[in-house]
Amino acid sequence: MSRKFIAAVLAVSTTIAAFSAAPARAASEEDIAKLLAGAATIFIIGKAIQNSRDDDDRRDKKKEEVRHFVPDHRAGHVSKPPVYTHQKPIPKVVPRDVTQRHKEVLPANCVRRIEGGRVGRVVMGRCLERNNISTRSLPKACRMTVESRRGEVRAYALPCLRHRGYTLARR
Description:
This protein is α+β, with helices and mostly antiparallel strands and about 170 residues long. About 40% of the residues lie in helices and about 15% in strands.
């Protein structure tokens, strides 16, 4: 049953019991004041009990809902909004070569400085192809178009490539 309903029944039964205990007589103002004070006291006590039980229920729910952020670290994966789970994550085995995800080393002579963009240096796509490096293996998130003497050409942002594990060869 609802707690509010039980509190209301308790208040009404106490009021009825107070009327039936006294002999029949005209109610004075003092009797009515006592009756109202008793009903208010019972109501306040019932409300306090209800609030304390509700607080306990809220605390129990908060203990059950433990949220953990589970990031997605796959190579070339575009980040999505955080994914939350209500259970503790299972520990994962870290691969041995996690520090060097790409064994491919990019030639340093393909790096060019650019102006007017967010990135200061890029790796030119045609230069990579001339050095027998497939641009298909490079992340699409790093791809950009830059203006050169020959028109618009494909290039790859160097900070983005470094963030994904690519390195530059020493000259």
